[in-house]
Design brief:
The protein has about 80 residues and is mainly α. It has a domain of about 25 residues. The protein is about 60% helix and about 0% strand. The chain has 4 helices and no strands.
Length: about 80
């Protein structure tokens, strides 16, 4: 077998770029295949949040991961 020809600087840069792209795509694929997602819990929780996390930890985590707007409470219209 013959000895491979050394890469030119341009070929080396292209190869390095491909390696970076491959690493990024591999990590993205690993993340997409995960069955669980870690959701950081806020450093402080309200009393309502504590009750919710005790009653439904998965639902609470889903709300933290993708918060949705909630309709205003009836008392909010009256003010304080």
């Amino acid at each position: 077998p013959s000895t491979p020809t050394p890469l030119t600087p341009e070929e080396a840069r292209t190869l390095t770029s491909w390696d970076r792209d491959l690493d990024a795509l591999s990590e993205e694929l690993r993340r997409s295949r995960r069955t669980t997602v870690d959701v950081p819990v806020p450093p402080t929780l309200s009393a309502s949040q504590l009750l919710r996390i005790a009653a439904d930890p998965d639902g609470f985590a889903q709300d933290l991961a993708r918060p949705m707007p909630r309709p205003p409470a009836p008392g909010a219209r009256r003010g304080t």
